[in-house]
Amino acid sequence: MPPIVETAPVPPRGQRVQETIVQLRARILGGEWPVGSRIPTEPQLVTALGVGRNTIREAIRALVHAGVLERRQGSGTYVVSVDELAPVVARQLTDDRMTEVVEVRRALEVEAARLAALRRTPGDLAALSDALAAREAAWRGGRVNEFVVADAALHTTVVAAAHNGMLAELHASIGTAMRSTVAATMGEALVPERYVDHSRLVAAIRAGDPERAAIEAGAFLEPPPRP
């Protein structure tokens, strides 16, 4: 008589979806899929996580609804935030709160620049160089939308170089608001008087000078005077 093989109970569907959401979020928070990157395809996720397609679809749908992921027709699904706070911040963004956004950015990015100068790795420095080059190329090309994205990417790269997970999450939560303030400042065209050099900030981080890095980060994040 063949031996009896006991099989592990299959968890309920709802539980599998929740566990899959946790796994997806862990990969996002761990930096495997950074903000702005495209996540693997559905078949790849099925293989990687060992669950069915329907479970993957429901988990992704939940994260899209939460504002963590975004589906782009014909392109795939992208990470747009590391947490659910970003869409909440975005809903609060109005023209009369732009100054508050700049003040929050200053509070986060000045400290991020200081920490980045102390903690940056060779990989961080390479990423900063690439991000700065992309920002400069977008400016030279006069492409407003591309410049706004590239500028935000450079600031995000500085924050990443600080190697403080909570700081990175807080900064990511204002990503949409940050891009909106930059777009409002630039207007419909890139004109010389609106150009702000960021090379000195990158140089200070590269040199390992935390005080200079903090000063440079704060210099172009001074909020306009309140009426």
UniProtKB/TrEMBL annotation:
The keyword ATP-binding does not apply. SUPFAM superfamilies: GntR ligand-binding domain-like (SSF48008), Winged helix' DNA-binding domain (SSF46785). InterPro entries: GntR_C, TF_FadR/GntR_C, Tscrpt_reg_HTH_GntR, WH-like_DNA-bd_sf, WH_DNA-bd_sf. It comes from the Bacteria. Keywords: DNA-binding, Transcription, Transcription regulation. The keyword Zinc does not apply. This is GntR family transcriptional regulator. Residues 14-82 form the HTH gntR-type domain. PANTHER family: REGULATORY PROTEIN GNTR HTH, TRANSCRIPTIONAL REGULATOR, GNTR FAMILY. GO terms for molecular function: DNA binding; DNA-binding transcription factor activity.
